[in-house]
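Consider the following assembly input.
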Amino acid sequence: MAKYLAKRIFYLLLTLFIVITVTFFMMKLLPGTPLTNQAKLSPQEQHLILKQYGLTKPVWQQYLLYVVGIFHGNFGTSFQFSDQPVSYLISSRIGPSLLLGAQAMIIGVLPGILFGALGAINKNTWIDSGTTIISILGISIPSFVLAVLLQYYVGLKLGWFPIADWGGFSYTVLPTLALAASPFADTARFIRTEMVDVLNSDYIELATAKGMSKWGVIYHHALRNSLIPVVTIIGPLAVNIMTGSMVIENIFSVPGIGEQFVKSILTNDYPTIMAVTIVYSVMLMVVLLLTDIVYGIIDPRIRLTGNSN
Amino acid sequence: MMESNENILEVENLKINFKTYAGTVKAIRDVSFNLKKGETLAIVGESGSGKTVTTRSIMGLLANNAVVEGGTVMFHDQDVLKMTEKQLQDLRGAKIAQIFQDPMTSLDPTMRIGRQIAEPLMVHKGMSKAKAMAQALDMMKLVGITNAENRINDYPHQFSGGMRQRIVIAIALINYPEILIADEPTTALDVTIQAQILDLMRELQNKISTSIIFITHDLGVVAGMADRVAVMYAGKIVEYGTVDEIFYNPKHPYTWGLLSSMPTLETNGDELPSIPGTPPDLLDPPTGDAFAPRNSYALKIDTEKEPPFFKVSDTHYAATWLLHPDAPKVTPPVQIVARQKQFAEMQKKLAAEKLSHPVEEEEERQ
């Protein structure tokens, strides 16, 4: 297990390095400079500022300097907010994003499992059709449309929750719901398909032949086996949440990392773009690693530390 | 073996249809048989002849689109077909248990096998997990799983096919059921493993005195296993009798076909005969004898009227017009004639030696 983990972490770091390199050069291909909108400054002044930030050097030198900086834990300072270290910018903003993401995963995935299972157990009945329609809606409606609908009806008309901004728990409700739709719908669809297969399998028939009740069979035998493949889509779902949150955070004015990311791309804030990319990549790769470990726990056939065989 | 004349299961005039998109499939068309305490009844037939559906109905495990058109399945004094779901749950795995065809897929891949074996005890006897596991361990030893103490917490994928079938047998027998339904239990296994599993089943039958319904398409397996044989074709039983009567004095042309297509020690190099054609479409079963179109011995009446059962002996009946007193005398295939000759000699010898058990005789010869 330790050996496996070490290997995985090595590859994780290698991947991260490649991501950093690719992003760095792609970012340099973006049109304009951080000073594009600063027409008031004279060219000499602009040149001075660019020089101060080291942006007049050849790109490969900038790249090397950046990589060396990272190894010293220096992610640079933001161009937008004068003299604010990027590391501070991110650490102060990652909280709301993680909170929203975690809430959305929980209220998306768990009911999704329940919905999908209900559909499969009551296959070809109105319950199945109902859950299927709801989950197809969840897949087809983009999160930003849902976000606006929630703001208008639940926020403005009903006035149950704040429309935007960030305060206590009530401020998280609408963005969480908007974010949760996609993981909810994906999980429900996936579980339904999987569980229909499992319920038709021989071992379910054998469990029934043991004299177990319908719900006993589902709880003890069908559920766990249907969950195995779902674990594999948790990774992609997490990506959905991350990318979704960029838009959602903007719509709901959540001071999160996604909102920051969009702003920094619009202003060519290179150090922030790089830092957010690194944070996203690390989050994604850690989720994937955790997925693989959880997969091994749920499915004994691919367990990493086999004691026999 | 410990046979008695008490019937523990009586299936009468069972008719089961399946509703499908293409129409109604008449899967079981008037099947009757009984099972005595301690005996092994083999149900033999091609795929799709209705063997499996028949046994599913005994456990109340029919698919949702199955409709029982008529008949009764009496287990002791109760009709299984009329039981509530709760009554069926009390029956399954306690009084009637089943072994399935493919041990590679019939165990839950994510549950430790000890727990899987213990589960019927926990369900039916309300036993604590620890107590049930202790009994499961004994059962694992009984079915011949070596090093059972260390393997009780293993998962199914850590066992070979033969070992997995032993585990499935342990699950089926843990509550000492009165009836064990074995649905092609050796079909998915290697030939050498097949023999081991059959030996194990015979041994356990003696130990826990259960009745077995043994479903197979392999007559070779039947010979060493069964006391009585019922031959099924197109949703009906066409012939039934003791194992000797079916093997050495078959009367139905379908049984002739099955036996002729089975290799024996005498088969040498000749091409093995097969039954021409395919079973009829049960969406629309033919009038008369369903086997007639494939039967080179078919009479005209076979295409018009379904043959009733004709009595051959007290234990042997066959549904073929060839047994009607007015039917022309036909000579069965050579293989069958040879078998009948053997049977006649055997009967003579038996009469002379007054041997009480023809089954032992049969095993010796093999």
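DSSP finds eleven helices and no strands in chain A. Ask yourself how this observation constrains the way the partners meet.
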